[in-house]
Design a protein that fits this description.
Strands 1, 2, 9, 12, 13 and 14 form a six-stranded antiparallel beta sheet that branches. This protein is elongated. By secondary structure, it is mainly beta.
């Protein structure tokens, strides 16, 4: 029997309507659990009784885009930075805002789901952090062609016969299906007409790998051919095996690769302070998959964490930390990269290199299996602080770098903590970024270098 397709509202290339929950029998159907904070634009919408009901997209500090049919569910609260619904009240990364006003599209029709989109005005501005980022809309979004691979995400029902939303954020890859096919009786049963303002995506017929959205996923985004703007490592290339022997790969307590870092000495790795729950470091890694069997790879447990004492997780100032290891040995594939005593503030236009195992693109938040690098250019703080970019959030202890042209090259999810190398010297640490804007790096200023060396020296006595 043919599987049902979803009618996905096309307006602005976001999923704004889920037809009915005949989606198959899976998660966000056929999907997978999303890595924590790898989709930082996702919003979770709650009704007046505190129940999670819909998803949405954070467009700016005060605006969330969702589906108009969520309007009738009495949405009054939005949470940002949610990993699990259960822990979202106590999670320090989560920000909660009341809905000040809802704006349904004036031509929305409840019976036909035409123009099924809604804007939510938040009562207070949301601050960008490593867990929460805005996803501004493009000025023009081409109509996605049949066969285009897209990604959907949400906390929707796990199974059709279980009336309960997923505790975890889930994502799935889906394929765009042409409107003529989607309007066939076997899919829509003539209940709805798929118009030019809608997109169909999912899996068809007897494909056993059913992937779709279901109840509870309403209002969440459909991302097609979307890159993070700052990732691939965007526009980058595979690194020749072991040509960056100072690179460290950091794992959390669940054994997941989360961040990069720099091996400064036999016992110290430098990374970003927002890289939390790091318990293990692998050195000499080229391919993550092969690193468990590669005998040249060294595995080190993290003995101590030393985040900068003035680190602020909301403003991401002083975003650096030291990890104390037992003792790594230098080899052909593992080498130390000691810090310079003084690092000049890099001038605008300085050519630099970034590296990491970060996500390849926004519709695939998985880390890259192989180490990648990209060439970037320093962008002056005045430009980076303009309303077009970061609007006065960039301090003298930060460096902006990226590209201004069409060929975007930069860092993204999973690259955090890795080095920014300019003229062979580590100048910064990958900190944060926003789609289609330069990446931001913690600058290894005179004060930061003094703290690093002082911390390393004092720790030797413990």
């Amino acid at each position: 029997m043919a599987r049902s397709l979803l009618a996905l509202a096309k307006t602005l290339c976001f999923v704004l309507h889920v037809q009915s929950c005949t989606c198959g029998e899976a998660e966000i159907i056929g999907g997978k659990k999303v890595k924590a904070h790898s989709l930082p634009h996702m919003a979770l919408l709650f009704n007046s009784e505190g129940e999670p009901r819909c998803g949405g997209t954070l467009l700016s500090p005060t605006w969330v885009l969702s589906a108009a049919h969520c309007f009738k569910l009495e949405i009054d609260t939005v949470r940002l930075g949610v990993v699990t619904i259960k822990n979202s009240k106590t999670d320090g990364f989560v920000q909660e805002r009341k809905v000040a006003k809802q704006y349904k599209h004036p031509d929305y029709e409840n019976a036909t789901y035409l123009h099924d989109l809604c804007l939510l005005k938040l009562s207070q501005a949301v601050e960008e952090t490593m867990a929460i980022k805005y996803l501004p809309l493009a000025n023009t979004i081409p109509d996605p062609k049949e066969g285009t691979i897209c990604m959907v995400a949400g906390w929707g029902f796990v199974k059709v016969d279980i009336n309960k939303m997923s505790d975890d954020l889930m994502s799935a890859d889906v394929t765009v299906i042409k409107r003529e096919t989607c309007n066939l009786t076997k899919y829509n049963n003539t209940k709805y007409t798929i118009t030019s303002d809608m997109v169909c995506a999912g899996t068809v017929d007897e494909n056993p790998d059913v992937r779709d959205t279901c109840q509870g996923d309403s209002g969440g985004p459909l991302m097609c051919n979307g890159t993070c703007g700052e990732a691939e490592i965007i526009g980058g290339k595979k690194v020749k095996a072991h040509s960056l022997p100072h690179m460290a790969l950091l794992f959390n307590s669940e054994g997941e690769p989360r961040c990069g870092g720099t091996l400064l000495s036999p016992t110290w790795v430098l990374t970003a302070a927002h890289c939390v729950d790091i318990t293990m470091v692998r050195l000499g890694v080229n391919s993550i998959k092969r690193s468990q069997k590669d005998k040249s790879v060294q595995v080190q447990k993290v003995l101590m964490h030393y985040p900068h004492p003035n680190y602020d997780s909301k403003k991401l100032v002083h975003d650096l930390q030291l990890l104390k290891l037992h003792r790594a040995k230098e080899s052909k594939n593992v080498q130390y990269l000691p810090l310079a005593n003084v690092i000049p503030d890099p001038k605008e236009g300085t050519k630099c290199v970034v590296a990491g195992w970060g996500a390849v693109e926004i519709q695939n938040p998985e880390t890259s299996d192989v180490l990648r690098s990209a060439d970037v250019a320093v962008i002056e703080r005045k430009t980076c602080n303009s309303p077009k970019y970061y609007n006065s959030k960039i301090t003298r202890d930060m460096v902006c770098a990226g590209t201004k042209g069409k060929k975007t090259q930069d860092t993204w999810t999973g690259d955090s903590g890795g080095p920014l190398m300019c003229k062979g010297v580590q100048v910064g640490i990958t900190s944060f970024g926003i789609a289609n804007k330069p990446g931001v790096y913690t600058f290894l200023s005179k004060e930061h270098i003094a703290w690093i060396k002082d911390t390393m020296r004092k720790s030797e006595f413990f």
